[in-house]
Amino acid sequence: MATKVIIDTDPGVDDAMAVLFACLHPEIELIGLTSIFGNVTTNIATRNARVLLELAGSDVPVAGGAQKPIVQASKEVAWEVHGHDGFGTLPPIEPKTLPHRLSAAEFICAEVNKHPGEVVLCPVGPLTNIALALELDPTITEKVKSVTVMGGSLAEGGNVTSYAEANIWQDPEAADKVFAAYWDVTMVGLDVTHQVKCTPDEFTGLAEASPKLGGFLNKISQFYFDFHIEANGFRGCYMHDPAAVISIIRPEFFGTEPKALTVVNDGERVGETVVANDNRPDIAVCLKVDEEAVRSLFLETIKSGS
After folding, report:
1. Phi, psi of 28 (to 5 degrees)
2. How far apart are CA 302 and CA 306, in angstroms?
3. Domain segments of the chain: what residues?
4. What are the pLDDT digits (tens) for 7-63?
5. Do residues 108 and 133 touch, judged by C-beta distance below 8 A?
6. pLDDT tens string 111-135
7. Where in the sequence numbering do the catalytic residues fall?
8. Whole-angstrom Cα distance, residue 219 to residue 197?
9. What span, in angstroms and rounded, lies between the C-alpha atoms of 168 and 150?
10. Which of 8, 107, 228, 293 has the most CB atoms less than 10 A away?
């Protein structure tokens, strides 16, 4: 039986990779997307999420999310990483569908209550919507199957500052609430995603095998590749968000350690994920990865599309 998944997303180039992977893989039943700021504004994220689903021929709903962090002032979105509209140099694409009538937090709570014990929440952007859902209905901790977070870092350092990973840095208070709650959380952070890379040649192969979906990913990724040359010294890209989605159905590709985590919410280390010294619950922190297996599964799955 396929796993029911809600992806909370800020598309974003690697978000597009993760969403299309989820649409194509038979072991994932994508039951909705919720949108959040981060790579782009929430409004652009909502639009882009609908575009991705239409591209994949999926009719699952998209619920628009929070416009700003729960406490801190909004930070700049990552235009320089993903392009002004999130899909590299592609101009805005107008979807035919409308967003869901519920907000992201309301949608998450409704679906978790509708399918108790079955839904995996997979936030691959800032954790604001997840924290708001917890506030709206604290009982979802007892009803969700699990939560897989793309974000954070234990030993790898940061990617927006020396200390902080981007998704956690965008809303550290929200991340801390998610890590403090008593539910099954896995953190797929930079400790493993910086080990999973794809090359331009591999994306050219995606376009050849799957002209529609692979071709789209190849087009939007050129801007992302250019960013990685400037920021990281290689032409290619880290597979942050796809790795998180893949961990849901292939946990054996990842090695985890139980750690109780808290998030620094002020000062120069704001957004850093650190081991907690209070009584909060352990989460599963991914520290090892079979990067070849993750990359191969992603490429094979996208190639199976149209």
Report:
1. -115, 130
2. 9
3. 3-303
4. 999 999 999 999 999 999 999 999 999 999 999 999 999 999 999 999 999 999 999
5. yes
6. 999 999 999 999 999 999 999 999 9
7. 10, 240
8. 17
9. 9
10. 8
